[in-house]
Design goal:
alpha+beta, 3-stranded mixed β-sheet, BON domain-containing protein, 168 residues, Alpha-Beta Plaits, two-stranded antiparallel sheet
């Protein structure tokens, strides 16, 4: 009987510890999960930041090569660089040789995987002189005169406008 009493006492004493241990384990698991989530979030942010830096680096390289090329100084070229290295060229160039040169410069730049060519060839601008069919008659604008009349006995001011219209 004494052994049964000791067994019961030891079980009674162990039960609160087991419950406390379960709470501690659950709290530890929650902290572990929170730590993993924070780590995943930081790793994702770092990866996105690195991709943005790579994209900016590629953009800068392509821009510098096209901007400082003597054959493309008269061209208007817009660049768009995707995170995967796809580079899109838009705008107008002087001739087919300039278009080919811009595509080659972009294609041969470190970090560029694909070049999408949306460039157009702008023909030489032609100036067409304007010649009116009949002379234009210029009519002077109508003049406006403003006269202010003040009443000496009151403090209000009345403005009267007089318009003169010139007919041709």
């Amino acid at each position: 009987m004494l052994s049964f009493a000791l067994l019961a006492a030891s079980l009674a004493a162990a039960t609160p510890d087991c419950k406390a241990q379960g709470v501690v384990e659950r709290a530890g698991e929650a902290l572990d999960n929170a730590g993993r989530n924070i780590r995943r979030g930081v790793e994702g942010a770092v990866a996105r930041g690195q991709a943005a830096v790579r994209e900016t680096d590629v953009f800068g390289r392509v821009y510098a090569r096209i901007h400082w090329d003597k054959k493309l100084t008269d061209s208007v070229i817009e660049l768009e660089v995707q995170p995967d290295g796809t580079t899109t060229l838009r705008g107008a160039v002087a001739d087919a040789a300039a278009k080919k040169r811009a595509v080659i410069l972009a294609r041969d730049t470190v970090g560029v995987t694909t070049v999408v060519d949306e460039l157009t060839i702008a023909g030489a601008a032609r100036v067409i002189p304007a010649s009116p069919t009949k002379p234009v008659r210029v009519v002077p604008p109508a003049s406006t005169t403003t006269t202010t009349i003040e009443k000496p006995t009151s403090t209000t001011t009345t403005t009267i406008e007089k318009k003169t219209v010139v007919k041709p």
